[in-house]
Write a structure and sequence with these properties.
This protein is α/β, with parallel strands linked by helices and about 140 residues long. It is built from five helices and five strands, in the order E-H-E-H-H-E-H-E-H-E. Strands 2-1-3-4-5 form a five-stranded parallel sheet, sandwiched between helices. Helix 4 links the parallel strand 3 and strand 4.
């Protein structure tokens, strides 16, 4: 049985706190795994710090192929990121379903919000930020 792939998208290079957002992405991936999905986390393959020797072209090709071969993209949009905007644009053009998540009251670019509204395959969710992902 092949598990449906879920691409976890979110800022890495532009993240205010890289370790904190990686913790969030890992938590999302854990939830996906627990529910029978196969999550792909870019930072596990092309981490901007650990894998800084990987070329821009290689990062793009690897993550692009993973993303367009996914059944769903879950994207954290609570921080501005050129990469996330590009990923979401590609997903919309490829008709890939998207779930966006952000903290309640977090401001998001009007352009991005408008772009997301052009697809009927986008669901947007908000959450209270506890900074303790996956911990009770």
């Amino acid at each position: 049985m092949t598990l449906e792939k879920v691409y976890i998208s979110g800022p890495l290079m532009a993240a205010k706190n890289l370790e904190s957002v990686k913790e969030l992405y890992d938590y999302i991936a854990e939830i996906c795994s627990e529910n029978g999905f196969n999550p792909y986390l870019p930072h596990n393959n092309t981490d901007p710090v650990r894998d800084s020797n990987i070329s821009d072209d290689e990062v793009y090709k690897k993550d692009y192929l993973e993303m367009i071969n996914s059944s769903l993209v879950i994207s954290y949009i609570g921080e501005p990121s050129h990469g996330v905007g590009a990923e979401l644009s590609i997903c919309i053009s490829q008709n890939i379903p998207i779930i966006t998540i952000k903290e309640v009251n977090q401001k998001v670019s009007r352009f991005l919000r408008g772009m997301l509204k052009t697809s009927d395959k986008v669901c947007s969710l908000e959450y209270e930020n506890t900074m303790s992902y996956g911990k009770n």
